[in-house]
Amino acid sequence: MDLDNAVQGYLSKMGFVGHFVRGIAHGIGLAFEEKPFPTIFPQDTMIELRSNMTLSIGHSILYRPEVGGVRVEDIYLITEEGAQILTNYSGELIEV
């Protein structure tokens, strides 16, 4: 699955055209950003995700002029059954 195009298509459909960047995922391990970069570099886009890989997937809505901007990343472990989220926060929005 082409992760980047799937997410970009969804964000466009939801009205966020022009408010996101390409490149929503990268490997994570000994370094924070490491291979594979399945959504950033063309040579990595067709790397098959395998069991025991870890990925950081960033919610790439960066900026809305009337609201502001943010980028949050979740860490996932790829398993034989799918993906297991490792990030441990509620994701609840705090109104200020």
Question: What would your notes on this structure say?
Answer:
The structure is a single chain. This protein has one helix at 3-13, and strands spanning 25-27, 54-59, 72-79, 82-85. It is an alpha+beta fold and 96 residues long. The chain has a single domain (3-85), classed as Creatinase/methionine aminopeptidase superfamily (Creatine Amidinohydrolase, Alpha-Beta Complex). It has a 4-stranded antiparallel beta sheet with strand order 1-2-3-4, with no helix packed on it. β3 (72-79) and β4 form a beta hairpin. The termini are far apart.
How do the strands and helices of this protein lay out in sequence?
Elements: H1 3-13, E1 25-27, E2 54-59, E3 72-79, E4 82-85
Antiparallel strand pairs: 1-2, 2-3, 3-4
Overall outline: globular
Number of DSSP E strands: 4
Mean pLDDT: 76
Q: Give unreliable regions as ranges.
A: none
Query: Radius of gyration, Cα only, in angstroms?
Result: 14 Å
CATH topology: Creatine Amidinohydrolase
CATH superfamily: Creatinase/methionine aminopeptidase superfamily
Short structural description:
With 96 residues, the protein is α+β, with helices and mostly antiparallel strands. 11% of the residues lie in helices and 22% in strands.
